[in-house]
Amino acid sequence: MRVEFNPNKLTHEEMLWLKQNVIDYMEDDGFTRLDLAFDFEDDLSNYYAMTDKSVKKTIFYGRNGKPETKYFGVRDSDRFIRIYNKKQERRDNADIEVVSEHLWRVEIELKRGMVDYWNDCFDDLHILQPDWKTIERTSDRAMVFMLLNDEEEWGKLERRTKNKYKQLIKEISLVDLTELMKLTLKANEKQLQKQIDFWQREFRFWK
After folding, report:
1. In this predicted model, what pLDDT tens digit does every residue of 41-88 receive, in sequence order?
2. How far apart (Å, rounded) are the C-alpha atoms in residues 72 and 18?
3. 120-159 pLDDT, tens per residue?
4. Helical H segments across the chain, by residue range
């Protein structure tokens, strides 16, 4: 028998009942999916997102011509990253007005084998504000400007050249929001692990 459910949809009492009456009697239990979400009250359309790995990147633009949604990977892969305008999404889907001027969300969706690596699952991701004008060499400055403004140009470069310019883009950015994400995850790591352990080990409800 296979049982699948989303713990976020359960009340406190329902979680206790399911744990004590169903899961504790299972011999083989585990997580098939785990999601991490980070919210920013900042306009992430002004940031440049990239990964150190070779991952498919898809960008959707809003009516104002600015990026509104960015995908890294594909939906059925073990890791799928979304960066999107949460304020606009709430307005479109639920007709809910967000008070903050900006609200963007970074979501990391983990499946199968990647679930066990949730605490370092986005080490290769960077959300930057590169200042291409600070590059002294004219040819490099022109190349970086082109790569920042035309994603298709990355596909024309060989691997070593890609790595060179990815490193340069990181060096000319004073900000990398993923560093803040890592600090936030580290600060909440024990609490998150308790929630995971609750479902997979002997009964102890987290506080």
Report:
1. 999 999 999 999 888 999 998 888 888 999 999 988 999 999 999 998
2. 34
3. 899 999 999 999 999 999 999 999 999 999 999 999 999 9
4. 12-21, 86-93, 138-149, 159-171, 177-187, 189-200
What is the CB neighbour count within 10 angstroms for residue 126?
A: 22
Spatial CB neighbours of 201, under 8 Å, sequence gap ≥ 6 = none
User: Which residue type sits at 92?
Assistant: D
List the structure tokens of 72. Answer: 């890294």
Q: How far apart are CA 18 and CA 3, in angstroms?
A: 11
Task: Tell me the DSSP string of 57-76.
Answer: EEEEE-TTSSEEEEEES-TT
- The closest of 178, 206, 174, 204 to 191, measured between CA atoms, is 206
- The phi and psi torsions of 74 (rounded to 5 degrees) equal -125, 160
81: tokens are: 């990253």
How far, in Å, CA of 147 to CA of 24, rounded? Answer: 52
- Residues comprising the chain, all counted: 207
Global confidence as pTM: 0.81
Q: CA distances (Å), 116 to each of 59, 78, 90, 134, 197, in order? A: 28, 11, 30, 40, 12
